[in-house]
TrEMBL record:
One of its GO terms (molecular function) is metallopeptidase activity. Keywords: Hydrolase, Membrane, Metalloprotease, Protease, Transmembrane, Transmembrane helix. InterPro entries: Rce1/LyrA-like_dom. Residues 140-251 form the CAAX prenyl protease 2/Lysostaphin resistance protein A-like domain. The keyword Transmembrane applies. The chain crosses the membrane at residues 17-36, 48-76, 103-124, 158-175, 187-210, 216-236, 243-264. This is CPBP family intramembrane metalloprotease. It comes from the Bacteria. The lineage of its organism: Bacteria, Bacillati, Bacillota, Bacilli, Bacillales. The keyword 4Fe-4S does not apply. It holds the Pfam family Rce1-like.
Length: 265
């Protein structure tokens, strides 16, 4: 499928920013139930109202979202990267007719990620602390919905729309400024770097569950980077929404696999 490029001037910034911010904010709000459970299990909580702790825990991703959207909304269309939501808000282009041809690739990519990541994780299990599996939140309905919305929407806005677009634009302007769009080499590097940063960004959540060791750090970065590469490729070749659907699909399939294992293992 041919990639749908933006025009060189890009869309109206304000409309694009607001609709993508609303989507990302929904993902942050969906993270609240998981944050409540995590904070309730933490020893030595600061002396302040619990509601304030929840608000503070949401503040960091909110600030990152505001910054990522500012850079991504300006740079992504100039680097030839597409959001169907943005096109709808600024050009009135239909979403479903453009998304429908991308669904098969997005869902298949999500399934591949969901199968591949547990297999890779199994290779690390002999060297991981027991507390990691004991303290990890169960993949129940609440966790899955939160992961679909925060991971599938907000993380894609942060890492693909924000970080990857910035890397692609900077690489293009530094090394391929005579080209109309960033070339393959720049895009591949942008995908890889943003994928590794995606993995590094998960270290904080893992540190809550278990002390970080070299093996645990490698495992966390590698597993999330593999997912980041898959989602980044979809963002490049299809659209931001295709990457979102793949990311959300991966969480659904991983939950199904986890439930099947509970029943039969």
């Amino acid at each position: 499928m041919e990639h749908n490029h933006e025009n060189k001037k890009g869309p109206a910034f304000g409309k694009s920013y607001l609709i993508l911010f609303a989507a990302g904010l929904a993902g942050i709000i969906a993270l609240v139930p998981i944050s409540v459970k995590q904070l309730q299990n933490l020893p030595g909580l600061p002396v302040m109202p619990f509601g304030m702790l929840i608000v503070l825990s949401m503040l960091q991703p909110l600030i990152l979202l505001v910054i990522a959207l500012a850079f991504g909304t300006w740079m992504a269309p100039r680097a030839g990267l597409t959001s169907l939501l943005m096109n709808r808000a600024t050009r009135g282009e239909p979403i479903w007719s453009r998304l429908r041809p991308q669904l098969t690739a997005a869902i298949l990519a999500g399934i591949v990620a969901a199968v591949l990541l547990p297999l890779l994780d199994a290779l690390f299990q002999p060297w991981l602390p027991a507390s990691l599996s004991q303290e990890a939140p169960p993949r129940d309905l609440v966790f899955t919905v939160s992961a679909m919305l925060y991971g599938g929407i907000t993380e894609e806005l942060l890492l693909r729309w924000g970080m990857m677009s910035v890397l692609a634009w900077v690489g293009w302007r530094l090394f391929q400024r005579h080209e109309e769009r960033p070339g393959r080499s720049v895009m591949v590097i942008a995908i890889l770097i943003s994928a590794v940063l995606f993995g590094i960004g998960h270290l904080g959540a893992v540190a809550v569950l278990a002390p970080l060791t070299p093996v645990l750090i490698l495992r966390t970065i590698l597993l999330n980077a593999v997912g980041g590469i898959i989602f980044g490729w979809l963002f490049w070749k299809r659209s931001l929404e295709a990457a979102m659907i793949a990311h959300a699909t991966a969480h659904v399939v991983m939950t199904l696999i986890a439930q099947i294992l509970i029943l039969f293992v």
